[in-house]
Known about the structure:
By secondary structure, the chain is an alpha+beta fold. The protein has 4 domains: about 1-310, Formate dehydrogenase/DMSO reductase fold; about 320-385; about 400-495, Cytochrome c-like domain (Cytochrome Bc1 Complex, Chain D, domain 2), CATH 1.10.760.10; about 500-665, Glutaredoxin (3-Layer(aba) Sandwich), CATH 3.40.30. The protein has helices at about 1-30, 35-40, 45-75, 85-90, 95-115, 125-140, 145-150, 155-180, 190-225, 235-265, 275-305, 330-355, 360-385, 400-415, 415-420, 445-450, 450-460, 475-495, 545-565, 580-585, 595-605, 650-665, and strands spanning about 320-325, 385, 510, 515-520, 525, 535-540, 565-570, 595, 625-630, 635-640. It has a 5-stranded mixed β-sheet with strand order 3-10-9-6-7, with helices on both faces. Strands 5-4-8 form a 3-stranded antiparallel β-sheet, with no helix packed on it. The longest helix is centred in the first third of the chain and has 37 residues, at about 190-225. The protein binds heme C. It is found in: Cell membrane.
Amino acid sequence: MFEFISNLGRWAQLTANLILFGSCFFLAITWQKKAVLEIPSSWLSRLEKGFTWLAALVVIGLVVVLASTTGEATGNVSNALDPAAWQQFIWQTKVGFIALIRVILATILFIVIAGLLRKNRARWHYGVCALFASLPLIAGTFVSHSSADEMSLVSIAPFALHILLAGIWFGGLPVFMLIILNSNREFDKVTRVLNATFLEKFSDMALPVMVLLIVTGLIVTDRMIEDDYHTLVSSPYGWLLNLKLMILMFILAIAYKVRNTWLPLFSQVDINDQIRRGIAHLRKWIRLELILALALMFVATTLANTLPAKHAIIEHWPFPFRFAFDSASEESLDEALFWSGFLLFSIALCLAWMGMHLRWNWKNKFFLPSALAAAAMAIALPPITIEAYPETYMKPQIPLDTLSISHGSQLFAEHCADCHGPQGKGNGRLAQTLSTSPADLLTEPHTVRHTVGNFYHWIAHGVPGTSMPGFAEILTDEDIWDVVNYLHALSRGFDARLLGTMIIPEVPAIAAPVFYYSASDGSSGDLKDFRYKKNTILVFFSWPQSQQRLIQLKHAHERVTQDHNAAILAIPMQQLDQQELLEISDLVPFPVVTEESAEITDTYLLYRRVRAVPDLNGAGLMPVHMEFMIDRFGYLRARWNAQFEGFGWQNINALTQQLALLNQEDEIMPPPDDHAH
Ligand code: HEC
């Protein structure tokens, strides 16, 4: 109920404000002949009478918005009526402050309208009113979803423009309607012709405005969805958006009919019965259009207050399939089919357009393009359709860090390795005995092609008809996500075989698994803390085999850290005793990680492979010493596996050269996400 009232307030205020802005804008630019304005019963007087009421409605609506947002933001509905809570909300939050600014702007608008419109009519009055009416609208965009990510002109301007354009179109409608409703009384010729020019001007303006409105709408929507197109059919935001588009389609259809069929009748000078009937039609449809436009506004305000699609959490995907464009590229035939279908669909659209313009009979106009479009979809969609499950779009609740990955690796060894093999290669002890061979989770690009939600589904529920069992009874939700994170790191780790001692400039591809650590020198932190500051070198060492290397790094320490903007973290690959730890801490000037070193090692071992040594058999080889270079944005860029990659970074120059290259790079991609996906 509370939510409904607050949406109603938003809607009333927005609608009134848009009508004011649009009507004044329209009058300011179409103002031409004084004659219409001097007829006492003219539609203009009626419209102007409405203006003061509308301005009052804007103020009231914005006060309701201020009150209800106070209630929502403080989580206590009764605060909506508590002036003390309002005060706090206004002075302590940006949203509250902007709500107040809007009330003030609306009050000024009210005063301006009441003052100016009482005087004699003049074109500039309407211009000034339109200007003042635009201010509360623009202020509103500062608390929109568009401004939530980033408060900048680029992010707000398209939305502000969208709102103002909506005002120009929607606000012009009442003028349109009043003229037509009044036309009963104004059957003298001069007025009729004048009115007709007004209508035509509006109609001319409406087309480009509508095109721009749709373009800005697409820009705004694209930002709210990002790449999560599936949310269009599975989140409240998506459904509301579809509803909005559907209403818009009806409105456009009516507008098209009005413009092409009925409007020409209206400007006829000689009235006969047929024309009267036509005008009666026009009146009916314009009324319907206005009602639809009001509904559209209601959906739009609700949409503006719904969680944007890109943030929606889809716990339950409603369809047993989904479309994935990368699945088409697997087979060239599939790809060819998809593009032929696409081409056919484009032809269908062209036919539809031609049909409308060349005035084909309705059978050809509708059936031909529809049949072609249906055929196009039948050809294009199957190649990109893949199976999906309710969990397909679920997002992991557990962040992708070494703690989770390492726990996942233990669970995998315990529950999965017998079939899938110790390294996930699909060659476990029992593999030969099974009727279907277990999936290769290491080298095949499974995890890249499937969503993490799919993995969750398979692990929780198994794969029917095969020997892959479900683990929902044995493993907790968190356990399953840990295993999913492990599988994710496993296959990304396999990709890391392409890394070497030299970076590939400008290609950050593999995220460095993050971790929290504490070190022997009392320091502690998060690997993420280095982002945007320093490159990081992780030194995985064995004791005492790595002693020489650690001494070398000690001597190079200043050069690496000071001159080349890097931090060094040493991570023991085996458990060290107190004595050893003291010895090493005395030796090296950089932190030696104590807590979580086992988890960190477990995880980074997955990234150990070099191109020449695929290392797929058995449990895999355990390197003695390896080092990883992470750039300032959190990506693994180079690795030296001392056993297989020769002299490598023992040449400190080779190491610092890579750092110098990294320091020249700017941010290419934002840092990796906290969660697997
Ligand atoms: C009894 C043997 C067995 C055990 C135990 C087992 N799996 Fe499987 N798994 C299979 C088989 C067989 C398949 C292949 C199913 C198919 O053909 O679609 C499979 C398929 C999968 C798939 C689907 C891969 C894909 O891309 O289709 C995943 C993921 C998976 N297993 C993960 C696991 C995990 C994680 C565990 C341990 C928690 C596990 N499996 C335990 C036999 C097993």
